[in-house]
Amino acid sequence: MPILEPRIPMKNLGAFSISLAVNDIEASRAFYEKIGFKKAGGNQAQNWLILRHGETTIGLFQGMFPKNMLTFNPGWTAQTETLTDFDDVREIQQALKAKGLSLDTEADEATTGPASLMMTDPDGNPILIDQHVESPANMTAKVT
After folding, report:
1. Inside any domain, residue 108
2. How far apart are CA 40 and CA 50, in angstroms?
3. What CATH number has the domain bearing residue 138?
4. Sequential pLDDT tens for the chain (144 residues)
5. What is the residue range of 124's domain?
6. Which of 52, 74, 115, 118 could form a disulfide with 105 if both were Cys (CB 3.0 to 4.6 A apart)?
7. Is residue 6 part of a domain?
8. Residue 64 lies in a domain
């Protein structure tokens, strides 16, 4: 009988998008608008924009990242609506480490609010798990 590793629950990594490292944010914005994307957030004067087409989200970042990366936002829907039931980035971090994965940067586990971690897949693709909202426990405490 095979030995099963303990299940470390991860309900969801959060809303998915791709963060694109662009050379000219205006040219990139114009290009993506021609194929149907619309501005959903960001600040072009600060060299970052969030564009959406249906359920698809991309981020344009000029001078902020060395290369494109996969991005997950725990606590958000694809429309950046805040969820109250989700895996906190620190829980995700513990689960990833328990599975033997190395992290490039880690969230401070002594905190409870917004935090992030980064890792790199075997092909060198960076992955950012970036939580912008309070942990679910803090949200519940504020409601009650």
Report:
1. yes
2. 5
3. 3.10.180.10
4. 444 444 455 678 999 999 999 999 999 999 999 999 999 999 999 999 999 999 899 999 999 999 999 999 999 988 888 998 899 999 999 999 999 999 999 999 999 889 999 999 999 999 999 999 998 877 655 544
5. 15-143
6. 118
7. no
8. yes
